[in-house]
Amino acid sequence: MQNNLISIITPSYNSKRFIKATIESVLSQTYENWEMIIVDDVSPDDSNEIIEEYCKQDSRIKLIKLEKNSGPAVARNRAIEEAKGRYIAFLDADDLWLPEKLEQQLSFMKENNLSFTYSAYKLIDEKDSDLGVFIPPMQASYSSILKTNPIGCLTAIYDTKKLGKIYMPNILKRQDYGLWLKILKQINTTKGILEPLAIYRIRKNSVSSNKLKAASYQWKIYREVEKLNLFKSFYYFVNYIYYGLKKY
Questions:
Q1: Residues with Cβ < 8 Å from 65, sequence gap 6 or more?
Q2: Confidence class of residue 170 from pLDDT cuts 50, 70 and 90?
């Protein structure tokens, strides 16, 4: 584990359209002590050719190719396994970071003695049109994120020196949420930055854009991942619906 090195975890599947901008947003970081581990989940498009060009240009960028299509949880967990950094950060292959993201968030973690943090983020569509800003609450706890998950995957960083390497549950969707729950079970509460440090791209067929699908995966988290009883699951699910309506 290298002190203060940040390992950036990026799963990639058919990311040809957006991966260049994603990598460029990492290369533009004011904080330069990072490695970017991109795990390709057997993409049939030409995205690997783009990624390989960047690997040649900058040794901090690494590409791992899975042998069979396994889903984003497996891809992310493989990258976490390979990570050499003290800090683990997440950036999907269609999202972006603002230039001071890593520098600002790492300072915030050190100043506040935090092992896990998140931030606000901007929203755009597939054509880069501005869709506003999502500002999360200043504090998050295990019980609060069971009601609603305000932590965008592209904003999260955790400290392996304090927490050890923690992996995502191997589920089809909402793996990141499952990871935040694991971490907050361990530390109970944390704080986030209310300034947008990243840009989340909402795509037409994404889970976040399909409310019914998202709700079914949320229920699975309660029952199958967190193993909550029916009463507790229903209680948190009602809260999830309420906060979801409020958010959108």
A1: 39, 40, 42, 48
A2: confident
User: Which residue is it, tokens 């800090």?
Assistant: 87
CA count, 13 A, side-chain hemisphere, 201: 19
> In this structure, which amino acid lies at residue 237?
F
Secondary structure (DSSP) of 30-58: S---EEEEEEE---SSSHHHHHHHHHHH-
Q: How many residues does the chain have?
A: 248
Specify the pLDDT at position 1. 62
Q: In this predicted model, what pLDDT tens digit does every residue of 106-116 receive, in sequence order?
A: 999 999 999 99
CATH of the domain spanning 2-204? 3.90.550.10
pTM over 0.85: yes
Task: Residue 94: name the closest of 73, 65, 125 by CA.
Answer: 125
Instruction: Please state, in angstroms and rounded to a whole number, the distance separating the CA atoms of residues 186 and 132.
Output: 33
